[in-house]
Design brief:
Length: 623
Amino acid sequence: MVRIKRSTVVGIVAVALPIALIAVLAALFLPGSGQRLVTLFLINLIAVLGFGIYSGNSGIMSFGHVGFMALGAYASGLLTMNPVVQKTALPHLPEWLAGWGMSFPLALLVAILVVAVVAVVIGVPVARLGGSSASICTLGFLVIVHVVLVASADITRGSQTFFGVPRAVDIWVALPCALLAVAIARIYRDSNSGLKLRASREDEIASTAVGVNVRLHRFCAWVLGAMLAGAAGALFAHFLGAFSPKDFYFNLTFMLLAMLILGGISTVSGAVVGTATIMLIVEVLRKFEGGVDLGFLSLPTVFGLTDIGIGLAILIVMYRLQDGLMGVREIDEKLPFLRRLGGQAKAAEVPAAAAPDRDTSLKVDNVGRRFAGLVALENASFDIVPGRVTGLIGPNGAGKSTLINCVSGVVPASSGKVLIDGRDVVSMPTYTVPKAGLGRTFQNIRLFRNLTVLENVTVAASAVAAAGEDAEALALCYLAEVGLADFADRLAGTLSYGAQRRLEIARALALKPRYLLLDEPAAGMNPAETQELMQVLDSIRHKYKLGLLVVEHDLKLIMRLCDVVVVLNKGQQIAMGTPAEIQANPAVVEAYIGRKRSGKPATASQNEPSAAALQPHAAGGLA
Ligand SMILES: Nc1ncnc2c1ncn2[C@@H]1O[C@H](COP(=O)(O)OP(=O)(O)OP(=O)(O)O)[C@@H](O)[C@H]1O
């Protein structure tokens, strides 16, 4: 059951009200062409919202949704056609398709169902793909639909006009359909599934690391978007009464994509603004396309002026506003009074941490990883135990990040095993690893930059939330934990560097992990930020009693925080012991000092740990 938040309702009303007002005014005061134009706007809006549900939330441009519009149009047209007209228009129609004579509302529902079935079949391979491969796949689908429609002359009249479709759609039919589409698109965007898909659009690897099943959510958005596009196609068919396959091909695709991109691909308000703007541009330019005589000036016929106008509008807007006219946030998320109406999320109580179970552990058992011929890691073996902090150190290129990637399933180990409470990570889909109790952060911060701070953490919280648990309230609580509650409404990409690092930790904590891997949490921080981080880590360590694995070049931090330290060098595990043992270990000192002697200066990298920090006299005061 989808829970609809108050802010979602406010967002729907904020967008639906102006649309309804314009439509009612047009119906009352603009009979004829004005009313037809607004009806067409409403139908186009439904199609653009269909595109947006998939493309806007997943970040994958679809060229195929007009194919679904075509299927919706022909299916609904066939089902509603008067049997007598049908005999004339389609004399060779197969018997099982002939003579249905359905009412338009019923045919609309059946057409949406037909489109949904096709979308499910096509969606299975499309959802496996990302980026341009998926886009090309959708383009292929559009071409196939077009060719099939042209080739199936017995059913579609081929490339000839398909006529005899009852004209059942006017502004009063299109308006409720458009408002419903706005509500569906916004509810989906704000739902857990929509939020997770938007997270995967920002960073697929990071979203998988917080438990997002990217393929599943892409598939859901693909099918839902296709159903809206199919509905738009059916409405279009019953608005025009006659059409042909070329009406549902590249020209319409170009125009709908222009509407989506111009307004802002990721928002419902962007779809509305983009659709209205492009339709206005087209209307104005169409008047000039055939040439105009202004008396003092006579303009010649310019073929394709409307397409040129649309192209120019996109270029100009994109030059100034990369995210389109409305940007990445909905209108109600930007306007303070609408935000207040939507209400604030309230923090929940973080469930008390259970006492660490000493019988459970994360076992790294002889783990190795090769990249082509390069041995990045070999035979790493140690345990991460709840309630214990394990440090992982080593010079640059030692294999620390590779080890974390193998443990979290981001990169499969070439040899050995990673066992979380006895279950081998290699046998789990990567997105289920967080649910098995493992959270992580990344060496190079991987936040969902165009989602708010609260949304970043909510994505993770919702991946593990129990039924009835409010993921947003939990997320707010973890934000408070790292001192970011006051920034909940800010876009993550606008935070300071140190705050971004802490946000990544809050996001990982929201997974309620038993094991938490932190990959260079203090990298690039100034001393004040590092101090703040130390306090956060100290508090996490005592409050949640997690098994922590901390990769760091800041040896002071490691020596102060860790119970056990593992040392890697050139992919080999060269030592493991308490901080005091590590400081006294000749092999470890050699790994650092040896590098210095061999002419690789300590200044070679900003991140390179100081060999001196490993000397007992230097570190003694830190332990
Ligand atoms: N995806 C990859 N493809 C090829 N080689 C890789 C890949 N990832 C890591 N390596 C190589 O594996 C070795 C270990 O890299 P890794 O990033 O794990 O080291 P590290 O100890 O984390 O280093 P740093 O402290 O600089 O982050 C390096 O030689 C690196 O170039």
